Amino acid sequence: MTSANLAAVQADAGRPPRDWVLIGLWLSLIVVAAIWIAPFVFIVFTSLKSTGQVMTTSAFAPPADPQFSNYASAWARGRFDTTFVNSVVITAIKVPLGLMISAMAAYALAKIPMRFGRLTLVLILFGTMIPFQVMLAPIFTLVNGFGLIDTYPGVILPYLAFGIPYQVFILHGFFRAIPHELSEAARIDGASHFTTFRRVFLPVSLPVLAALFILDFVATWNEFAMALVLLQDREMWTLPLGLSAFQGQFSRDYGQLNAAIVMTVLPATLVYLIFQRYFVSGLTSGAVKG
Amino acid sequence: MAARAIGSNMRIQALLLLGPALVIYVVFAVFPMLDVIWLSFFKWNGLDPVKVYVGASNYVDVFTKDPVFWVAFRNTMIWTALSVVIPPMIGLGLALGLNQPIFGRNTLRAIYYLPVIIAPIAVATMWRWMYDPFFGLFGQILTSLGLQSWVMDWLGNRDIALYSAFGAYVWQSVGFSMVLFLAGLQGVNRSLVEAARIDGAGRWSIFRYVTLPALRTTLTIVLVLAIINSLKAFDIVYGLTGGGPAQSTQMLALWAFTQSMQIFDFGRGSAISVVLLGVTLAVVIPYMRWTQKREETTE
Amino acid sequence: MTLISVASRAAFAGGLLLAGTCLSAAEDLTIWTLNFSSEASNDAFTKIAADFEAANPGVKVNVVTRGVDDHKTAIRVAAGTDKGPDIYFMWAGLGLGGEYVKAGLSLPLDKYYAEYKWDDELVPAAASFSRIYEGGRHGVPFTFKGEALYYNKALFEKAGIAGTPANYDELVADAEKLKAAGIPAITFGGTVNWHVMRLMDVILEAKCGADTHDALMNMKVDWTKEACAADSFAELDKWAKNYILSPFMGIDQAQSFNLFVAGRAAMMLEGDWLVQQLAEVVDLNGYDLFLFPTGTNRLYGFAEYNYVSTKSKNPDLAAKFLDYFNSTDVQQSVLGAFSTTSINKHVAYDNQRPLEKKWLDIFNTYDKVYMNGDQAFPLDVTTEYFRVINEVASGNMTPVDAAAAMQTFIGNKS
């Protein structure tokens, strides 16, 4: 009874003056956040220490004499100039191209009646569920058969193939929700599907495309397993491959290893912090509502 | 006649729009999937010019003679079971907390989600260093708390290595479940919550009878995604333990890779892949049928 | 025939056509080797190729370098076609190198060994690997590495150890003394499987003797019937429980090196390359080395080789290049680029550190070698060998079971 009264009072007052449950909740959220962020602090601190300091100082002691040279050395020894450029080239080609062809396909499947349209859609959606990790060996033999091992197309084409299902899935749901009147108006004016797609659908789906763009950027930037198989020449390595090799070769230089981690992680982190809102909307637009 | 021309024109347009995606998808995703099944019936080391058809013997070898396969199978099952329970539970807890009007919720959300966007191989490298038994983070924290005896060889002790690796996975994947739940919580009817509160329902009752039922769809999606993602566990285990010590943290995906691409036994590696594929399909097909049904009812 | 192989054949046919158009009248020599992590190695290789071209007008040398995994894969791919190199790099041993020999990719070189009298030029231990294959001598040495026990003099002194052990039992007694003094005897990194494996290799050599050890590694005898196999696993178990700096299964070899130079353990089982690594971080006077006392009078080590391909259109030219490559003058000029010591025994060294001098003497003394397990076994057996060793080292498998597991796996192969 009392709690009901209290609730009623609170409802009247608008906001409760002091809600101990909320405060407790807030504190526990802060604790979890501290745990969540601790690894980053530890990594950044270690990246600025010399090997001797790592062995003698405490983990959370800020570096007394920051060794920024760790970054320069790790950059050179980890061949970050090469791996960075490769990652940028692959991502810059794959992400826009993938979105383009996925959007086109999603439009066709959503708005053009086709005999095997539904079957095609199911076939493509099936791909969202299949772990490509099981096919590493045949992908390798296939790409090798085309003579594309250690080339940009050799890794971009499979990336495209495994990015298509999820993007088509989300965009198809989005396009279908666009009212018929909108596209029909354009169609009656005699516009082709290409024009309708470009003039009507692309503009209204910009927010979704932006979200997919960022999600796909992160996924492509971070991809490891397929790159491991398809890019064997170290001149073609991407950042994740470079980091993995760096750990194998120079793991006794603790400071440099951690500097290498920071440099690998930083670009994606910056992109995330800048475009934060799109991450959330992108994840939710398709997966939950679609 | 005009209608016919429009019809064929339409078909060409559809083909042009759908074509690029479909061709790439079929060649580089569907075809390798069929090829892995095909390869699993052959003996091939990558050196010999011919592949020898051996029937089901790769499967027999994998099931009966491979000392690691069942370890990998068991680990994959454990990993999947854990990832269905732990990250979604923590994620749900965080989402419920962040759904309250509390100070700094956007910052907190950003922090929880941050690990999700980091490359799994970088997560592995970070955690491997934190697990270092001599200079790592966990060792140091426990030592400073006077708990030296609790310091363990996190990644070298076969009894705990798998769970140490899973710890890194939890850290990385909780944010993902959290965001999905947060989105789902937007769909909870606020007036219903208010009404329940005015009726005198406690926090737990509101959660149990109002919030949770509204989250049913989200819950299913989170769980299915958790299963699918966990079956793919590759990068984190590769980077943290490489399957060791003594293959005790081996996983199906990684073991298939090892057999095919490091030992160059393509047949056996493919057979392991097909087993993983089968397990995935056993989970995925019921889910796809369910979503299809749901779609049909909402249409 | 799968679609893939059709596709790959078509691709290869295309590639051959392209290759055909750029074929010149001059003699071509294609060499596939590693993209070495040291730039000095890569530069030296390029320089030797250029010099050879200059000395032999009309000859064109193509050096193709790749990463380790890519290189292995590329040779596999080339083996199924007519394409491929005249000379290829590969480790020596029945495992890695032997697989390609078995597949018929390596040309026996007995004729050239006789013609060029290579045995008069080469360090005996390094050349010994060419004799381990069936059907003739295969490949010529590129580098050779020996492995021995490095020790921290101060820690040995602290434990009251004078002199180096003459046999395996004395070594164990020394380890026991170190333990009594509170010093872990040796350090290994368990995450890289090949590190702890070295201990198992040398124990097998000590316990089984040369012939039985070789027979075990060649999978010619039953691991369960040779009692020394289980005995060796029992010794490994003893080392893991008592003498190895613990924990070791969760760290890698580089970390164990850090612990060694930090004085946390007294010994390390490492190759001749460690002298240079130690010199970069500590005063070498505090360290010395001795061979793991096995009593078999063989050196523990492995070699990297260059093999002539059976697909080569001009094996005579390939042999001529290898002769030039390993000649005293050339080796003298690139000394230190590939390895601290040359595989040519006439090369002169100056300004040598005492430990390097010691290695040189060792190399010139021993003409018989036993090699690392991962070079000796085929790849799948190596993987199992690693697993069994790690199981024993982490106290999870009894020595008898370990021998049985090895035999079961080997038996299942055939």
Give an account of the 3D structure.
The complex is a heterotrimer of chains A (290), B (299) and C (414). Chain A is 77% helix and 0% strand. Chain A folds into 2 domains: 2-72, no CATH class; 79-287, Orthogonal Bundle (MetI-like fold), CATH 1.10.3720. With 290 residues, chain A is mostly helical. Residues 1-13 and 286-290 of chain A have low confidence and may be disordered. Chain B has a domain at 69-249: Orthogonal Bundle (MetI-like fold), CATH 1.10.3720.10. Chain B has helices spanning 2-39, 57-64, 69-98, 105-113, 120-130, 137-144, 161-186, 190-198, 203-214, 216-231, 235-240, 252-262, 266-298, and strands at 42-43, 52-53. In chain B, helix 2 packs across helix 13. The radius of gyration of chain B is 24 Å and the shape is globular. The model of chain B has no long low-confidence stretch (mean pLDDT 84). Chain C folds into 2 domains: 19-145 and 302-355, Periplasmic binding protein-like II (D-Maltodextrin-Binding Protein, domain 2, 3-Layer(aba) Sandwich), CATH 3.40.190.10; 146-300 and 371-413, D-Maltodextrin-Binding Protein, domain 2. In chain C, 50% of the residues lie in helices and 13% in strands. Chain C is built from 18 helices and 8 strands. Chain C has helices at residues 3-21, 39-55, 68-79, 96-102, 110-116, 124-127, 153-158, 168-180, 193-217, 227-242, 253-261, 274-281, 315-325, 328-333, 354-365, 373-376, 379-393, 399-413; strands at residues 27-34, 59-66, 87-91, 140-152, 267-271, 287-290, 299-308, 369-370. In chain C, strands 1, 2, 3, 4, 5, 6, 7 and 8 form an 8-stranded mixed β-sheet that branches. In chain C, helix 9 (193-217) packs across helix 17. Chain C is globular and about 70 Å long. Chains A and B meet through helix 1, helix 2, helix 5, helix 6 and helix 7 of A and helix 1, helix 3, helix 4, helix 5 and helix 6 of B.
Keywords:
heterotrimer, B: 299 residues, mainly alpha, MetI-like fold, two-stranded antiparallel ribbon, 2 strands, globular, C: 414 residues, alpha/beta, D-Maltodextrin-Binding Protein, domain 2, 2 domains, eight-stranded mixed sheet, 50% helix, 13% strand, disordered N terminus
